[in-house]
Each structure stands twice: as C-alpha cells, then as structure tokens.
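Aim 2 progress update. The chain analyzed this quarter is reproduced below.
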Amino acid sequence: QVQVVESGGGLVQAGGSLRLSCAASGSTFSINAIGWYRQAPGKQRELVATINSSGGTNVAESVKGRFTISRNNAKNTVYLQMNSLKPEDTATYYCAAQEVVTGLYKYWGQGTQVTVSS
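Predicted structure tokens:
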C-alpha cells in the first residue's frame, strides 16, 4: 500500500505563487510516477502535471510556463511550484501515485484547496 498526502494549498492573489507538496509513504518502490490533478466545482478533473521515477515530466498546456513539477527522492516528495496564478487555477488539487504493475493512478490523496482571488 501507498499513502500520499498533499499540503501547501491556500488563498493567494492573482499573480502570486504557491508550492504544493505530495509526500508518499509505504510501498513507494511500487510507484512509477506521481501526478497532480485538479478539479474545480462543476468541472471535470484535469491532469496538471506528472513526473516519473526517472525525473521525466509532463505539464498541461494550460499551465505550461507557470507550473513546474519536481521531486526530492530522498524525501519521497513531489512538488508543484505554481507561479503567476490566475483565478481560473482555483480548484482542489490532488496528488496521485501511479502503480508500476497496472499503470493506473491507484493511490490518491485527500486534496488541498487552492483559491486565487482576482
């Protein structure tokens, strides 16, 4: 089993920055990648960024150039640095761990709220 816990959300003004953290614990050897997703009220869940075990990253076009994903393997923690935040970035942000065996994002955190005021 793997547990992931998000932290770092909050209220920020447009143009500001936040850094989200996703700490993984448990059987972390069974994880291939960590992804950040977000979901705003009334909208579908959206993939924001992923980082795999080799450090390869993918970032959604909607946040490219503003958001950066990184990892600290020693701490089993993945970060999402969010700069130049916009009101449309307001959402609950979830961290998810991809299982090596199935390729599914099987393990999910409880989410952290990010609110960007205009």
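The CA atoms of residues 34 and 97 lie 5 Å apart. DSSP finds no helices and eleven strands in the chain. These observations will guide the mutagenesis experiments scheduled for the next reporting period.
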